[in-house]
Amino acid sequence: VEAACTTGWDEFSTAQVGINVFGASAPGGTCLEKFGFSAANVKACAERCLAGETGILSDGTQGKH
Fold first, then answer.
1. Helix (H, G, I), strand (E, B), or coil: what is residue 58?
2. Is the pLDDT of residue 63 over 80?
């Protein structure tokens, strides 16, 4: 889980949660929630990883307008 771009993390981890989109402006907590850094989303991604899914599991695009 990295509050930045997921590029390159595949070398060190099996699955990644990050932000691959730019341009949002809001209070930090709001941005984190919108871009997938909520406890619920990180938990869901961890469960997907434990089930065998690999790669970018969350890249922030769910918060892009």
1. strand
2. no
Give the list of residues 6+ apart from residue 63 with CB closer than 8 angstroms, or none.
21, 24, 31, 33, 34, 35, 36
34: DSSP letter: H
pLDDT, residue 22, reads: 83
Would you call 51 exposed, middle or buried from its count of C-beta atoms within 10 A (0-12, 13-18, 19+)?
exposed
Query: Which residue type, as a one-letter code, is found at position 47?
Result: E
For 55, the 3-state DSSP assignment is strand
Sign of CA dihedral 30, 57, 3, 60: negative
pTM summary value: 0.84
Three-state DSSP at 11 gives helix
> Looking at residue 29, what DSSP letter applies?
H
